[in-house]
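Appendix B, example 12.
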Amino acid sequence: MLLIGLTGGIGAGKSSVSAALARRGAVIVDADAIVRELQSPGTDVFGEMVERFGSGIVSEDGTLDRAAVAQVVFTDPQALADLGAIVHPRVHAEIERRIAEQAGTDHVVVLDIPLLAEAGWPGLAGTIVVDLDPDIAVQRLIAHRGFSEEDARNRIANQIEREQRLSRADFVVDNHGDPEALEAEVDRAWTWIHSI
């Protein structure tokens, strides 16, 4: 198994790069997808979040209202820390379990974690950072994911600075171009992975 980290600021295109790596044969361990699974109604994480943040974070259909959670935590550092204390240990344990399933294989396992540059992860053969100017990321979040400009900027402000993230990269995928340019960047990244 070759374990590769993948990260990037919100709106940088990390999910697109992750999907492109999967098409090339990588096994993806997606922290965001794991978070969504762990925050499903009926889970311990869901119950603890409702207990901490109130019923206002529950949608009419009984699922988590992610926008409501974001409004609370991205403007209140203590609330963000409390959310992390509820979610992060469980996510960490599930990521470790999924990586262990791949041990002994010859797979390229890509660990897709938004906060990888902040938190790190042991045992990585290398880290890929998807890079995009934060102002362009804001525009893409508004256009493609329905964010308000304020929400997009609040989330970016709660992440590590672009320069710090880039300083932790072993390989940088530039996502300032069109989808075809991004595919070419992922081809370069795939070649780099196989050179490790």
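The mean pLDDT is 95. The CA atoms of residues 10 and 156 lie 7 Å apart.
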